Amino acid sequence: MSKTIKLLFLSCAIMVLAACSTGPKIYVNKDPKTDLGAFTTFGFEKNLATDKIDGTQSLLSQYFIATTKKEMELRGYKYTTENPELGINFYASTQEKIRSTSTPTMGMGMGMGGYYGYRGGYYAPYGGYETTVQQYTQGTATIDLVNMSTKKLVWEGTAVGRITTEVQENLQGSVADVVKDIFQRYPTQQGGGPAYVPPKAKK
Predict the structure, then answer these.
(1) pTM of the prediction?
(2) Do residues 108 and 122 lie in contact, with contact meaning Cβ atoms separated by under 8 Å?
């Protein structure tokens, strides 16, 4: 599969991660020896994993960058293209899944009754199970933060969700929602202190 075609699938994955009624599942990992609050600046990897094969920056990458930059700045970090302390990269993938569910069913059976075996009445109800098999696509989006001085990963946030078609016309908004969901699990602000808490939306 060419990288161009693959990026189309990845875009679909990101578009729909935010479409699940309960939102995507978020997983985070952090290097326990690293103080994320001690870093001051951040930037983006020159060759993002979500870019096109010819090096062109994809729309998917641009949407990731825009919201991630905002989320990092809300936490006190400064964006720079000159030797950033933290380097950020993005990854996205899709995977076909099969889900099998069984539900109980009820039925009635004819029986033999009365004298001399004449047919009469029904047996008691008997139970069974009906199995439904459903195929769906799961999308995964990951944001990596790398300590540029050691080239080691220091924080990783991943969103995993079931792909639907509800937000296919709003890739930019869906990426923004996924990135915000991931950064809600970011543990600190620049300089230390508690995790950033976004203001509640006005009703």
Answers:
(1) 0.74
(2) yes
